[in-house]
Amino acid sequence: xxxxxxxxxxxxxxxxxxxxxxxxxxxxxxxxxxxxxxxxxxxxxxxxxxxxxxxxxxxxxxxxxxxxxxxxxxxxxxxxxxxxxxxxxxxxxxxxxxxxxxxxxxxxxxxxxxxxxxxxxxxxxxxxxxxxxxxxxxxxxxxxxxxxxxxxxxxxxxxxxxxxxxxxxxxxxxxxxxxxxxxxxxxxxxxxxxxxxxxxxxxxxxxxxxxxxxxxxxxxxxxxxxxxxxxxxxxxxxxxxxxxxxxxxxxxxxxxxxxxxxxxxxxxxxxxxxxxxxxxxxxxxxxxxxxxxxxxxxxxxxxxxxxxxxxxxxxxxxxxxxxxxxxxxxxxxxxxxxxxxxxxxxxxxxxxxxxxxxxxxxxxxxxxxxxxxxxxxxxxxxxxxxxxxxxxxxxxxxxxxxxxxxxx
Length: 408
Hints:
Elements: H1 12-25, E1 38-46, E2 51-56, E3 61-67, E4 72-77, E5 83-88, E6 93-98, E7 103-109, E8 114-119, E9 125-130, E10 135-140, E11 145-151, E12 156-161, E13 167-172, E14 177-183, E15 191-198, E16 203-210, E17 220-226, E18 231-237, H2 244-248, E19 256-262, E20 267-272, E21 278-283, E22 288-293, E23 298-304, E24 309-314, E25 320-325, E26 330-335, E27 340-346, E28 351-356, E29 362-367, E30 372-377, E31 385-391, E32 396-405
Antiparallel strand pairs: 1-2, 1-32, 2-3, 4-5, 5-6, 6-7, 8-9, 9-10, 10-11, 12-13, 13-14, 14-15, 16-17, 17-18, 18-19, 20-21, 21-22, 22-23, 24-25, 25-26, 26-27, 28-29, 29-30, 30-31
């Protein structure tokens, strides 16, 4: 883990001048032109320094360093409001960051050792998995406070909301299981436990995919990374009795374990194609990725990638998968359509998280070992290329991107 690198005040003009020269030399007019009121920031949680770094993606510079709680880990974006959330594992809280000011607007207390946060599609609630208290906290994002707590399995790791906002799933790392809850409108009992599914050793990341019927209430599937083994668990999440599927087949009104799939060793992260047709797992222990069909629940193939793949994201057109190679200090692009590696770009040390800018002109890669973020241009004449490195803080854990237009 690298210590947080602090630049002296005297060095700032030099850094700004060098960046200006770089922008001019590379042809700044080849970058997108944005309206005057357009803002876009990348937010990086810095585990060693108790901060979140806000990077301005319009001007490609550090906007500010935001003090949050101790050991910030996971982050999430509100889809409807100008807020992002940082989970402070070391201080049992969640920081609400107002993206219009890039300052902490509220700190919300939760339970012990919060590990992840999932935000509802309507932006009204968030759910926080508390690893040391074996609970999940329900946060009212409008009131900005914890309103309920529900029991989970041992060592909850990841909380995810189904696209229809009817179901919450929580992976339990220590218990090796998945907990499933109904989301209700009740103020006293907003979560109702439905089912638990054991048999997923070291359960960590979860991807929830809507079914193909096109109805909001017709069920989903949860794919769970069993990081202590080489498997992905697949669970059917119950359809509403009033939906087409529920009316056609009453058995689909119940949660069901569909199968467990063999992938590479130590699957750590799951990335879903925007069209929902496939899920990719990064297999940290076998230097590979696995492609899974969400329609047939089968592994279509496992392919070698860079050393120790840790995280992945997929382009909006479903064509390309980008993977952070934690052990190779690089990011690799895999062509989903062609089935082979197309490019590899050197980053900083131990890349851990990555995300596209809103227009996918840039790919941002947060580096845990070198306290920086690699900015990769996606549309240069030579293909994807490293454009610059922007400073972050000590030991990046997560990164999210938020774009919005300010009121004039």
